[in-house]
């Protein structure tokens, strides 16, 4: 029987990967889409939020290791 030990640092790294994918997808949508000004503004606001989340996770990882 194998035991799993929870590692907070590993979980943060996993989250960074997921949020990084969200950043890439949001950026691609903004760059490649035919968006009206309201859609573009909403997309840029969402992208800022996701980038902030990514920066916070990276900061947490620095203190974790």
What is the beta-strand fraction?
under 5%
Largest sheet: none
* SSE topology string: HH
Low-confidence stretches: none
Features:
single chain, 65 residues, mainly alpha, 0% strand
Topology:
Layout: H1 8-32, H2 37-64
Descriptive report:
The protein is mostly helical. It has two helices and no strands. The protein starts with 7 loop residues before the first helix and ends with a helix. The model has no long low-confidence stretch (mean pLDDT 88).
Give a quick summary of the entry.
With 65 residues, this protein is an all-alpha fold. The protein has helices at 8-32, 37-64.
């Amino acid at each position: 029987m194998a035991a799993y030990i929870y590692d907070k640092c590993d979980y943060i790294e996993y989250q960074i990967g997921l949020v990084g994918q969200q950043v890439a997808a949001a950026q691609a949508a903004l760059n490649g889409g035919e968006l009206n000004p309201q859609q573009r503004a909403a997309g840029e606001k969402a992208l800022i939020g996701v980038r902030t989340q990514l920066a916070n996770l990276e900061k947490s990882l620095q203190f974790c290791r």
